[in-house]
Amino acid sequence: MTFEILETAIAKFGHAMLESEEGITEKRRVETNPNKNMARWPIGSSTLQSTAIHPKFIFLPSNVPPVHPSTVLAMSGARNLSAALRRVRVSRPRIALRPALPRTPFATVRSFSVSSPVRADKEIKYTSDAYPNVQRNPNFAELTADDVTYFKELLGSESAVIDGVTSDATDDIEPFNSDWMRKYRGHTRLVLKPKTTEEVSQVLKYCNEKKLAVVPQGGNTGLVGGSIPVFDEIVVNTSRMNNIRSFDQASGVLVADAGVILEVADLYLAERDHLFPLDLGAKGSCHIGGNVSTNAGGLRLLRYGSLHGSVLGLEAVLPDGTIVDALSTLRKNNTGYDLKQLFIGSEGTIGLITGVSIQCPPRPKAVNVAYFGLESFEQVQRAYLEAKGQLSEILSAFELMDGRSQRLVQDSTGTKQPIEGEYPFYCLIETSGSNAEHDMAKLESFLENVMGEGIVADGVLAQDETQFQALWRWREGITEALSHLGGTYKYDVSIPLSELYQLVEDCKQRLTEKGFVGDDDSFPVRAVVGYGHMGDSNLHLNVAVRKYDKEVEKAIEPWVYEWIQKRQGSISAEHGLGIAKREYIGYSQNDTMVKLMKQLKNLYDPNGIMNPYKYI
Ligand SMILES: Cc1cc2nc3c(=O)[nH]c(=O)nc-3n(C[C@H](O)[C@H](O)[C@H](O)COP(=O)(O)OP(=O)(O)OC[C@H]3O[C@@H](n4cnc5c(N)ncnc54)[C@H](O)[C@@H]3O)c2cc1C
Q: Which of the residues 99, 108, 356, 384 could staple to 463 if both were Cys, CB 3.0 to 4.6 A apart?
């Protein structure tokens, strides 16, 4: 089985590295020999028989975050499973809408190929250098060899401690010290991977008593630098807390450890005809504890709502070691303050989430995807209104992509766009329901209307699983396409729908007027693009730069936040604040709210050891 996992990873990505389940962390490039059913480390002489390998993580090429072995398996097996669920049972529509052309499809993998925006060989600047006004808090103690001894004795397994205090572990620690965007980098010398809630409790209690600062870390896919230490904070990573605790088929309630990878949870649920009520591009790496801590939104919030609604209970550990057992599985529980809500979206600043109880809906039996070109943002809004009205309960995603973002995907993949001609805007609509014929009749009628009214200029419908995946890749592939350009300034914002795209136009105009935008290397900015979750009024404004440049940053910030504030929007729709937006909370929260947050922080974490230097 392990050998198959490696083979699958290598077939997809050229090579893979793995981290062993037990024993010291091993992250090396591996090669396989299918004839001998064997994997080996090319560096060094040891050859591993397949039975000897129990990888905990498969490390894909340096620009792709590590994934859990079951995720790699999912690339083959589970995709087929989801094919059955996602097959588009579209009888060819009577209208001019065409099926997706049989062009070269994207790789059928969705959501795994997140890669780094900056060339892997480039040094990442230390966050402490990038934010010189942030100073290390002198109240925090520095790690000693005695501390490390304590943690090693407590956590037992060698793979639970990466010790850069008493040994040189630079290479092993680096993935925990830097982020996916290669934008943030810390100086931690110790990574702890507790396995149980009790161990987390002991770790935090010790850290609190010794005044050792801590950064909780899940899959490390966050986009605002929240999971990366700024100075020498200890990283407490949840990757070994990866058990599904229970699932109740009747109620659809899943209870799982915080370190379960989102996609692993979803695959587990798929086998039981249920669905995790959250889906996002980083699902192959992010942890459900990380999702809850960031209150992640994702692709289907429109349908399944926010985690503030679907999370029924939480287990968390406070800095003093207190285990907060609020792991209720009840939908209704009106007994006082709903304290679990404080942890949802708190980004590791008041405690460490160790367990999650979540309401999961039945998996839809019929799923359809359509992809359109539109002539203006006004038409996009009209199409959205029509979709809401006509598709109502089966509408599960309404995504917006501008023309520039789609050209970038085309350039980076070499794949032709699904529809002929160029449009300033594209939308992807997904429907999910329980009755294929009923859903199809609704979708056909909707498509006839919007094409007949001239709202949509051209469009395609996925006819099979490959096309379903291929169409989604035009949306999900944007982040990766941008990543090939250099660095990206990312703004994930909520704005009233009518002005959603205006921000992109205004930002582009501003940067052009300042002489920053151009096609050759003398210009720092390569592209200003906009895309996002139209159904949630959530825009992703992305400014792709040849390299991170303080002058460009100063031209965007705080201008962009002022722009949003004037429209009563939010400067963070779903990614959180982390360190990236630590100074800007005041643009979306008034003084009273910030004061209340600080009071809560002091109440839960009087020594301030939890994720310091971030937004609170
Ligand atoms: C390609 C790509 C697509 C993405 N798409 C979306 C999207 O559509 N919607 C969206 O919302 N986000 C998206 N993200 C951002 C990111 O995936 C989410 O924020 C995700 O929820 C982070 O989970 P994680 O396990 O990686 O957390 P991490 O990055 O490890 O941590 C994020 C924050 O949570 C804290 N934290 C982590 N685990 C815990 C815990 N157990 N207890 C307490 N605090 C904890 C950390 O300290 C940090 O502040 C995307 C990222 C990528 C790379």
A: 99
